[in-house]
Write the structure tokens for this entry.
Amino acid sequence: MGNQSLEIAQALPPGAARCPQEPSTQDIIARDRVAAPAWVRCESYEFLGDEDISIDRYIDPAFAKREFDTLWNRTWQFACREEHIPEVGDYYVYDIGRHSFIVTRVAKDDVRAYYNACLHRGTKLRPSGTDGCASEFQCSFHGWSWHLDGSLKESVCAWDFPHVDAGKFSLPQAKVERLAGFVFINMDHGAPALAEYFGPEFMAHINEWGLENRYIYCHVVKKIPANWKLNMEAFMEAYHVIHTHPQVAVSNADANSQYDIYGEHVNRFISSLGVLSPHLRGQYTEQDILDQFTIGDSSMLGGADRTLAPGETARQRMADIMRVMFEQGTNTDLSGVSDAELLDCFSYTLFPNTFLFPGISLPMVYRFRPDRDDHRKSIYEVFFLRPLPVDGIRPEPVETVYLDDDQSFTEAEGMDPGFGAILDQDTDNLLLQQEGLEASAKPGITLGNYQEIRVRHFERAIDKYLQGGA
Ligand code: FES
Ligand SMILES: [Fe+2]
């Protein structure tokens, strides 16, 4: 069977082969009882070549330096959510490498990002990792201060600085755009607008999700002992599920997941849940699939009836259970939400370092950043978002949980333990991968044409920035 499917694949144009065990993601979704919207029922795969990707990008500190010099200073990055800075004067410090920004709400509808450095002798105006509310930004060293709008308020002993033109001493700013409750910043004032950067397909998708009407109920940060790109790529495919997460494969379509690319800066997968992995075909019944479905915020799945009626599929019943449980658990109205949106894992990568998961069962945002001093370390953040309650009152943002290097994700308050175990499995591979690449006699990594297209697409964008294009 394996050799036969390889021969069939080799007879096809490169990139055209799919898992020979049907159904495809689109077939699964087409059978759902509550139909999926257009942004789900579309495909956008493109073959981008099959050559190896050189490993210097993961193991060479000079490569990391080039990224700071040519990529991080020219790309749109998710700095914070608007809910982090709801009131005028609220601020949130976002760091990337040596760069640091005070993202602050200057007026009700005006958010700015100031370079976080005093214009006198350079002291950071707010410590990294902090947020709060300010009526001005005063430096802790000699007391110079700036108004919220960035203009110079006071230079202490101004008589000693006749050469300082207050009009030219406003805090420098990065570009800021807001989209769906996210605040994005870009250090490059010549950068394209955010909508152009993400492209029309993604903009059409995100405009349907209503992510501005979600709130963060859990935020976990952990340092990972691997290059930031390895850290990201660990979450770009479902190819690893059968081996790394065998406990979820019974109810995950893994090798039948769908992969899409959109322009230069966005890609996605759709990984269907509530269906059997094609690797396990014939080994489990529909009832087994339902019984073993645990992924997501399963604390809300409580006492639902889990016995299937004759002819009913696990996926159908799971969608019904989830709709009721999430409506009750989060006090929201999900009657118009499709089965696919309730159940499936939709993962979008926004280049360079953000993942959005707009589904209901896995409502997350990931952010990845390189360690500023060590190319072998990265900072991984998971934000869990829920729809706003029907009363419309937005809960306060939660306290960030910082895990120690040796702590499990299952220990993070607010994290579903089953999902925390999955994140442990994902990140436990990363030190081995970092060290293996450093030990390797092979100069490149080899990628699957379909299931690993997001990795290739991502690395292609990295190369473009490093080569001066975008
Ligand atoms: S360094 Fe900021 S006031 Fe002197
Ligand atoms: Fe994983």
